[in-house]
Amino acid sequence: MDMEELLSIGDMAKINHITVNTLRLYDKWGLLKPAYINHETNYRYYDIKQNARLDLIAYMKELGMNLKEIKELLDKEDLNLIEAILIKKKAAIDQEIAERVRQRDAIKRTIYSLERYRKSPTPGTLTTEFIDERSIYKAYVSKNFYDYGLDAYEMILKEFKNNLIHENLPEVYYCNVGTFLSKENFLHQHFETHTSFIFVNEHFPLKEKVEKLESGMYACIYLDDFMDEKEYAKRLLDYCEKNHYEIIGDYICEVLIELTFFNQNNRSMYLRLQVPIAFKKTLDPHQ
Question: Which residues form the HTH merR-type domain (predicted)?
C-alpha cells in the first residue's frame, strides 16, 4: 500500500470536520475501519475514498439515526430495512413536531391572555364588542355548574379534564374552561347547564369535534369572581334590554385568564360574560 496516498487520522478528521475520537469510535463500532494500521506505532491511516462512507454516516445521523441503527443498516445492506427505519423515524419526528407546535400554541395563548388581561376593563364594565369567529371543543359534565360551590366546581373541572384524557388529548389543552347557558335559560335567568368548553385552534387533533362560534356583535360584562356570575349575568341581561338589543344566541362564560400564578389555595379567574346580539330595527315615524 502506498503510504503517501493515505491520510493520517488527524488529517481525515480535519477534512471531514469531525474529531479524532469520533473516528476511533466509528472504528470501535465497525462503521469505518482505517485503511491501514501501523502495528508498530498503532497509527491509523485512511484512504481519501473513505470520505464517501463518512458522508453517508453523517447523513444518516442527520436523519435521526443512532450509531446502533446505522451499524445495523450498513451491515445488512437491506434497502427495505432502511426504508422501514426511515418511515418509523419520520413518524416519530412528526409526533415530536406536533407536540412542540402544541407547546408553542399554549405559550402564545398564555402570552395573549396576559396581555388581554392587562388591557381589559375593570370588573363590572359593560361593553358591546365585535368578536371574531372562534373554534371550540365542547364536553358534557354530569353536574350543573351553578348548583355548587367552588369545591364541587373543581370536581366538575376534573370531570372535564377526564373527558380530554379519554379522548387522548394532550393536557396542554386543559386551560380556561368556560361554560354555556342556553339562550332561553339566560333570558329567564335560569342557571342550569351541563356544557363546558375550551377554545382551540387549527392544530387541535380532533378536528371532527370542533365547533365554530360565528363572528358578530356581543354584549359583554367583565368580572373577577366566579361566585358573582349570576349577579353579573343579570346586569348583562338588563343592559341588553335597556339598549333594545336582540339576543340571538347562547350565553357564554369565558375565562379570559386564570390568575392562579399568585394564589395557591384556590382558582382565581378573570371572566367575560357575553351574549351574541343583533340591533333591533325601529321604524322612523317621520318616514
Answer: 6-76
Please give the tally of structural domains in the chain.
2
Is position 286 within any domain?
A: no
Task: Return the beta strands (E) in the chain as ranges.
Answer: 6-8, 36-38, 43-47, 126-131, 134-140, 178-181, 195-200, 210-213, 216-223, 245-247, 251-258, 269-279
Range of the domain at 150: 120-279
166 and 254 co-located in one domain:
yes
Mean pLDDT of each 10-residue bin along the chain, 287 residues long = 82 95 95 93 93 94 90 87 88 91 90 89 96 93 82 83 88 86 96 91 91 96 92 97 96 85 67 94 57
Which ranges of 30-135 does DSSP label H, i.e. alpha helix? Answer: 51-62, 67-76, 79-119
Pairing of strands 210-213, 134-140: antiparallel
Helix (H, G, I), strand (E, B) or coil at 265: coil
CB 185 within 8 A of CB 202: no
Q: What is the CATH number of the domain that holds 220?
A: 3.20.80.10
The set of cell numbers assigned to 247 is 339576543
Q: Is residue 67 situated within a structural domain? A: yes
Provide the pLDDT for residue 286.
56
Residues 128 and 37 in one domain: no
